[in-house]
Amino acid sequence: GKVELARTIQDVVDAVRPLIEERGVNITTDVRPGVTPVTGDRDQLVQVIQNLVDNAVKYTPKGGAVRISLEPAASVEAARAPSRSGVGLSLLSPDAPEGQAFVVIRVTDDGPGIARQHLPRLSERFYRVEGQRSGGTGLGLAIVKHVVNRHRGGLTVESAEGEGTTFSVYLPLAPAVAAQA
Ligand code: ATP
Ligand code: MG
């Protein structure tokens, strides 16, 4: 169906805000008005946003800041070459449509960052960075990648050690039939 991402992001953030603030992390949203709804699976996209926010909050120390934004993207080209500090990973669905408008959801934190050598394996199931102060089972990003693929989108990770991490989810306005169920 049609998914109003601005609304979806706000719902997810509102639901987790008390828990997040209890942890001493500040969360802000920056949602451009008038972003076109995407066609997709709302429950799956909620999971994507929840997993990225969960990570940003979980791996960011007390006093840190998490920011989630939504904006239009003219195409998926920007997803091919993430550039923050030159350290990045781009996972593009093989059937991401060319020459079509996308939207991009970004989740940015000012936490520890992710060392370069871990980036290629991050979205593998059960993959976790050693020595992380807290964590789960290592499934969150595998789910994110799976859902992004089903929506013919793209996922990028830009990270700098000691500075923070940005995950960006690119979604085409009209994805594969498989994702519309
Ligand atoms: P789960 O999501 O199943 O609870 P998890 O958070 O450990 O477990 P993923 O969400 O797949 O698993 O993340 C994989 C690993 O990537 C994490 O264990 C962590 O080491 C690293 N990571 C993910 N997001 C961040 C982030 N925002 N900052 C620093 N490291 C991160
Ligand atoms: Mg996680």
TrEMBL record:
<feature type="domain" description="Histidine kinase">
    <location>
        <begin position="1"/>
        <end position="175"/>
    </location>
</feature>
<protein>
    <recommendedName>
        <fullName>histidine kinase</fullName>
    </recommendedName>
</protein>
